[in-house]
Amino acid sequence: MVGLKKTATLITVLGLCLSVSCVGFAGHRKHKEKTSKQTEVTVVKTEAKVDVTQADKNVAEQNKDKELVASQHQEDAAQAPINTPPVVEKLPYILVDENMSNLQLSDANTPIYDKFTVTERRANGLNTYMPDLLPYRNGKIAYLTFDDGPDGKNTLGVLDVLKNEGIKGTFYVVGYQCPNYPETLKRIFNEGHAIGNHSYSHNYNLLYPYVDNFMEELSKTEKIIKDIIGVRPLIVRAPGGTYGMFTSAYYPALKAAGYVEHDWNVCIDDAVGGHPTAADFVQKVREQTASGISSAIVLMHCGYAKEETVKALPEIIQLLRDRGYSFGVMTPMTPQAW
Ligand SMILES: [Zn+2]
């Protein structure tokens, strides 16, 4: 009975999202995934090989403030140290190592990226295989995910809300959009959010059921992303979700290239017709988290005509906080939605 009930619930939620369309493409569906843990990584500034210019500036500003305070407190102190130790910065993200052996993270708050594209890994004889990871299950965590960006308006609106609330989210970006809004992509990255690969074209007819096409689009998109922010994402979201889209060939292909796909288990339905409002979106979250699921992966959109999503976001965050959720970013160890 329990199994039947669970199945029935699953089907109901699936049904809720079947009509979702990311960015105006018709038809949508659902899901699947993997997970893990790890150690924090600090990077000596002079050794960082990726483009972290803005991150450097941010940390430098913070350090400057700290130094100012320190100097005020130490005005009477005897002498300043003669040998200043090298500045060690904690970047707002982690880099996966060459063997892909540090993906089991210690918290759910830090994005992880790769300084190599899959093509570069293969050319250099480096591991590309995504290891099996333990799903991260430490308390109630909500993962706010925003698909179909970047754009020049609503993605910025979402970023403003997240900054104001002091939380991080995850943005699954579409390859063809990135060259049009590189500054938006950089801002997502520099503000410590996670970026995921959402294909290049977002065209179901090209992506399904041709696994080679799907993988080529991931490759094309990660090169575009790396050209802008200096790293590639390890996380992927299939446009429309995997349910009814993926064949059994997709999962091994993703794993072999070091990717993890995540669908969602909370869907605000902001890509359906009928002009739903911010209040509708909040209600969807209220209903779909009522059971107290421990990992709530919330699907939202941040592209064209998603003003109501931006408007709903503060209330959605408050609702989730009231229900005891903290907020995390998607990583390869994020539990699968189902
Ligand atoms: Zn989409």
The number of distinct β-strands equals 13
Helix content: 25-40%
Task: Give the C-level CATH assignment of the largest domain.
Answer: Alpha Beta
Global morphology: globular
User: Given the helix and strand composition, which structural class is it?
Assistant: alpha/beta
Explain what you see:
With 338 residues, this protein is an alpha/beta fold. The protein has two domains: 2-41 and 92-328, TIM Barrel; 43-89, no CATH class. The protein is built from ten helices and 13 strands. Strands 5, 6, 7, 11, 12 and 13 form a six-stranded parallel sheet that branches. β11 (266-267), α9 and β12 form a beta-alpha-beta unit. α4 runs parallel beside α10 and α9 packs parallel to α10 (307-322). Bound molecules: zinc ion. Zinc ion (ZN) binds next to β5.
Task: Give a quick set of tags describing it.
single chain, 338 residues, alpha/beta, TIM Barrel, 2 domains, 6-stranded parallel beta sheet, 3-stranded mixed beta sheet, 13 strands, binds zinc ion
Topology:
Layout: H1 2-18, E1 43-44, H2 53-73, E2 88-89, E3 94-95, E4 112-114, H3 118-123, E5 141-149, H4 154-165, E6 170-173, H5 182-190, E7 194-197, H6 204-207, H7 211-229, E8 232-233, E9 235-236, H8 250-256, E10 260-261, E11 266-267, H9 278-288, E12 295-301, H10 307-322, E13 326-328
Parallel strand pairs: 3-4, 5-6, 5-12, 5-13, 6-7, 9-10, 11-12
Antiparallel strand pairs: 1-2, 4-8
Helix pairs in contact: 4-10, 9-10
Bound molecules: zinc ion.
